[in-house]
Design goal:
Elements: H1 7-10, E1 13-16, E2 27-31, H2 44-53, E3 63-67, H3 76-86, E4 92-95, H4 98-112, E5 122-125, H5 135-146, E6 151-156, E7 159-165
Length: about 170
Amino acid sequence: MEEIRNKVAESGLITLDWSDWYRAEEIARIDIKDWLLEEVLLREKDFRQQLKTFDWTTYEGKILHFHCSSDAIIPPWAYMLLAVSAQPHVNWSFYGSEEGFQQQYWSWVVDSIDTDKYADQRVILKGCGDLPVPDSAFLQLSAKLAIKVKSLMFGEACSTVPVFKQKRK
């Protein structure tokens, strides 16, 4: 009887999974509508006071996603105050929609990935999963990997879509 071999394991393919880089426990969200008069009007004096008395230490070392669920018009300096107030405590902060947050978050993650360790390797970028990874992250990471890897594929080891193959020298 012939021995069963795992050809995928023997292939030398490296599968990159977005979940290896996701830090869900570090993401906190704050709706700033609660800091507005009647949830729509920003009064500078009150806003500054709330930022000053807010306990930022509960967000120590986290990623902070600010958003406003009301239709308030927020002046740009308010975002500046949010950033300056949160900065000493958080790893990274963002203001905007959930979609915008996901795009910026994953861009930040991709920037931090050391692609040198994948130099001249055959890499698969996993496409399926439970995480909301935007298309922009696939684009950004693919561009970053293409200058390092021997080949880049999308999908799973049993069913890949070829994306890039280094030309032979």
